[in-house]
Design brief:
The chain is of the alpha+beta class and 97 residues long. The chain has helices at 17-31, 43-50, 54-66, and strands at residues 39-41, 70-72, 84-89. A 3-stranded antiparallel beta sheet has the order 1-3-2. Helix 1 (17-31) crosses helix 3.
């Protein structure tokens, strides 16, 4: 019998929904569809559009803040009665990779 060729497979890792949200926002930043200074939709609106719970959105926002990609301003009034929340994108730090 012929032996199978060894192929370097990688383990499959299940990704959390919050990690998928972080990746999606990072991709939007890289593509230029959202830019530093833009305001993100409200937590409630993001949860509805992404079909996840608000706690999942909050977890993703905390991760993005830890990566210094966004700045969360709790209780910040939205500008001109729009539905955006107090979360804005930070300019990219040139010292970060």
């Amino acid at each position: 019998m012929e032996q199978a060729t060894r192929v370097p497979f990688r383990a499959i890792h299940k990704r959390r929904a919050s990690q998928a949200i972080v990746a999606q926002i990072q991709d939007l930043l890289i593509s230029g569809r959202i830019r530093p200074g833009d305001r993100l939709p409200s937590e409630r609106e993001l949860a509805e559009v992404l079909q996840v719970g608000r706690s999942t959105v909050r977890e993703a926002l905390r991760a993005l803040e830890a990566l210094a990609l966004i700045q969360v301003q709790p209780g910040a009034p939205p500008p001109s009665r729009s539905q955006s929340c107090g979360v804005s994108l930070k300019p990219r730090n040139p010292t970060l990779p």
